Amino acid sequence: MDWPHDPDGEQGSEGGRKYGHAILAKKLDEGEDFPLAAADYVADYGDHPIRIDHETVVSVEDIFEHVEKEEFEDFIAFHQELGRAMRSAGYWPYEGAEAFVDV
After folding, report:
1. Which domain of life does this protein belong to (predicted)?
2. Structural domain boundaries, residue 57
3. Global pTM exceeds 0.85
């Protein structure tokens, strides 16, 4: 896929190789962007690449297909729902996640 920027470049990973959830969260300002509509986030960043692991890159829109909430009241709610959505979609490759949450 032709991405609007390199998922491993400065815009995609802030100069280092960051993955998944961290990249989604870095697009927001905790003090200014909430409450946040999921549709607005996808409109702004839907075509942006998110590196899931060393082999896999998906779009923000791909991840948000699994998001159930339409709005996030705060940063914590955003983190919780995105984590749930990524686990349910198989975009959470970290070993042991099932030990900490119910999927």
Report:
1. Archaea
2. 10-93
3. no
